[in-house]
Amino acid sequence: MTNTPPAEHVGVTEIGEMLSVSRQRANKLVARADFPAPVAQTKAGRVWERAAVVKWEKGWDRTNVGGRPPKRAAQQ
Questions:
Q1: Which of 6, 30, 33, 50 counts the most CB atoms within 10 A of its CB?
Q2: Cβ of 26: how many Cβ atoms within 10 Å?
């Protein structure tokens, strides 16, 4: 088995793997205004430069994920 370097370009599935999120969540992230623009559109979908995604991830605030707020303890 050989150690091949990661591809320079990545699709949504790979972005999800890189960021440890689902493909569906990755699709929402790539739609954000602050996410890097794709470098190409293929029949298989959009592709981004891996380096640009890595750079974006460093500034990504994972604590602000949105969604439903946590349930509060029942008040007595």
A1: 30
A2: 22
What is the torsion angle, in degrees rounded to the nearest 10, for the CA atoms of residue 64, residue 69, residue 73 and residue 76?
A: 130
Q: How far is CA 73 from CA 61, 64, 65, 66, 69, in A?
A: 27, 22, 22, 20, 12
Stretches where the chain sits below pLDDT 50 are: none
Q: Where are the beta strands (DSSP E) in 7-55?
A: 9-10, 40-42, 45-49
What is the reported pTM? 0.77
Helix, strand, coil share of the chain (percent; to 5): 35, 15, 55
